[in-house]
Write a structure and sequence with these properties.
single chain; 128 residues; mainly alpha; 4 helices
Amino acid sequence: MSEIHDNPQKKRRGLNRVIHALGYSLQGLKAGMFEPAFRQEIWLACALIPLSFFVGNNWVEISVLIGSVVIVLIVELLNTGLESAIDRVGPQWHDLSKRCKDLGSAAVLLSILLCAGIWGSALSVKLG
């Protein structure tokens, strides 16, 4: 295989690799900000994460509340990545492309339901 087609990231080692990986991760977060669903979830996270310190009674509860919000963000980014990869293949309709997008969407839905369930339970204990 020609050197031209090799991924330079694979040849990096140590701190150099970590620094470059961090840059790629930040580029991914920046790309996510162009997705309306991710932006909405970021706004929700900006409200819920500080609120978790008032709703949670100890560090475990606070961590679970924050974690449930972060899981939604993670799953949304993964779903966006799947959709981008499918869209790169082509705009034509295909059963497998639809299935991939539907599965990603279902994962986002489940993460949102998990987050809502955790927050609903915590709020009912706190307010009830």
